[in-house]
Amino acid sequence: MSTQETVRQHADEVEGSEALRIDAEKASQLVDALNTDLASTYVLYHQLKKHHWNVEGAEFRDLHLFLGEAAEDAEEFADELAERVQALGGVPMAGMTSLDEHAPVEAEDEDV
Questions:
Q1: Please, are residues 81 and 24 in contact by the beta-carbon 8 Å criterion?
Q2: Is the pLDDT of residue 5 over 80?
Q3: Helix ranges, 55-110 (H)
Q4: Residue 110 resides in a domain
Q5: How many C-alpha atoms does 65 have within 13 Å on its Cβ side?
Q6: Is 14 inside any structural domain?
Q7: Does 56 fall in a domain?
Q8: How far apart are CA 49 and CA 90, in angstroms?
Q9: Can you tell me whether residue 73 is helix, strand or coil?
């Protein structure tokens, strides 16, 4: 039994923006900007989780809760950004390589 991979839409394509009455070029620009924001938000999310997991000391509880809530907020915002990219006819970035390449901020390394 063989499986054939079917690609519905390539990541660099914007389709269906005319249904929203948005010029295809403008929709593409919006998708690019939103995907950059999405990549930045995922970097932020992972940094918040890193510090949430590694916080220590007298302020542990308050910082742990704060960082956990901030990470949840970042995750929710990333979801909203991805849904807007999809609504504009684009493909939300999801792969770690794409996210890393498009985020204007660099993630910290693994050291704590």
A1: no
A2: no
A3: 60-87, 96-102
A4: no
A5: 3
A6: no
A7: yes
A8: 28
A9: helix
Quote the DSSP letter at residue 100: H
In this predicted model, what pLDDT tens digit does every residue of 11-60 receive, in sequence order? 666 776 666 678 888 989 999 999 999 999 999 999 999 999 999 999 99
Q: For 65-103, what is each residue's pLDDT tens digit?
A: 999 999 999 999 999 999 999 999 999 999 988 888 899
Instruction: From residue 102, give the alpha-carbon distance in Å to each of 56, 96, 97.
Output: 32, 10, 9
Task: For residue 87, give the nearest of 6, 10, 3, 22 by alpha carbon.
Answer: 22
3-state DSSP assignment of residue 93: coil
Q: 22: helix, coil or strand?
A: coil
Give CA–CA dist 19/7, Å, rounded.
Answer: 22
Domain count, the chain: 1
Task: Kindly state the tokens that stand for 92.
Answer: 């939300």
- Evaluated on CA atoms 100, 106, 111, 112, the torsion sign reads negative
pTM over 0.85: no
Instruction: Please give the residue range of the domain that contains residue 61.
Output: 26-102
- CATH number of the domain that residue 35 is part of: 1.20.1260.10
